[in-house]
Amino acid sequence: MSAFRSRCRPPWWPENEAWPPRDARHRWRAGRGRFFRRVAVTVLIMLTLSICGAVALVWMAATRLGLIASGGQSAAIILLVGGMVGVAIVGLGFLTVMRWVVSPLNRVMEAADRVAAGAYDVRVAEHGPPPIRAWAHAFNTMTERLQQHDRLRRDLMADVAHELRTPLTVIQGKLEGLLDGVYPRDEAQLEMLLEETHVLSRLVEDLRTLALSGSGALKLQKESIDAGELARDVAAAFTGDASARRVSVAVDAPASVQPIEIDPVRVREVLSNLVSNALRHTPVGGSIHVRVGESQIADPASAVVVEV
Q1: Of 157, 190, 218, which residue is a domain's last?
Q2: Mean pLDDT confidence for 147-171
Q3: What is the pLDDT of residues 24-54, one digit of tens each?
Q4: Coil vs helix vs strand at 293
Q5: Is the dihedral of CA 160, 164, 169, 170 positive or negative?
Q6: H helical segments located in 4-67
Q7: Which H or E run contains 262?
Q8: Is 288 helix (H, G, I), strand (E, B) or coil?
């Protein structure tokens, strides 16, 4: 589709973009209006020719049947006027239908261009023929999901920045204190710094797992595992931190729970994150309970429930 020959800016063209268009995408947008006009004119001409042909056939049939043998001029005038009225009615009806169909279609296409530029808050009115309304509804649903995903992405970036800033601030403060002589350069301070680096490493590994999961490249290595034993191993790994905070960690895992096919590394990461969060938000003297039980909504041999 070629661009408009006129140098005048069309009314639907964005004010902040140059006219005439310079690249292929803009040329396509400029040719859109001309394409719709060509389609409308072509269909209108075809309808006019069809009506004229129908009038001619009626004239020929009436002549052969002798219906216009007398007063032929009056009959010809009547047929001509009827044909012109028919052309006018069909033309007006066609223009109305084209406006009813093309106008919402054009609005959807303009909104799609704005979404392509990053404006995910664009919505279009859902009116017109049923297929056009369905198309507009699908478009609005798509943009709503894009807007939600963009908001989640922004929130995730903010959360990641916050989570990374905390251990980095602790490490920076400790190192500055060690250099300035505020903190003694003993094993306890080094262990604290090492613990913060473990937190950073765990955050980076979580980001890597999230990226692999989002791209579909995360591979699961499943094997038959006792979920209760896995929960006890995770709880044992936090015994030292829990004792330092004077928090107790208890695991309730009945022996009746059957082994299930899972990826022990990934499930261990999930349980570790849950217990770590629980330990971070449990007050001094509190307790953390990890319960492993059979699922009530699935086959007990293929699923279990873990509560922290």
Answers
A1: 218
A2: 83
A3: 455 555 555 566 667 667 777 777 777 777 7
A4: strand
A5: positive
A6: 24-64
A7: strand 260-262
A8: strand
Domain of residue 37, residue span? 1-119
Q: Count up the domains in the chain and report the number.
A: 3
**Domain finish residue from 119, 134, 153:** 119
Work out the burial of residue 109: count CB atoms within 10 Å of its CB; fewer than 13 is exposed, 13-18 middle, 19 or more buried. Answer: middle
Cα 255–Cα 257–Cα 260 angle in degrees, nearest 5: 130
Backbone angle region of 287, left / alpha / beta, with phi > 0 → left and psi within -120 to 50 → alpha = beta
pLDDT at 102 over 50: yes
Phi, psi of 119 (to 5 degrees): -90, 90
d(CA 152, CA 148): 6
Cβ neighbours of residue 179 closer than 8 Å, sequence gap 6 or more: none
Please give the structure tokens belonging to residue 47: 């309808």
Q: Taking the chain, what is the end-to-end CA distance rounded to the nearest angstrom?
A: 62
CATH number at residue 164: 1.10.287.130
Quote the tokens at residue 238: 């936090």
pTM over cut 0.90: no
- As a whole number of angstroms, the distance between CA 286 and CA 263 comes to 31
Give the position of tokens 């075809």. Answer: 46
Q: Which amino acid is present at 266?
A: R
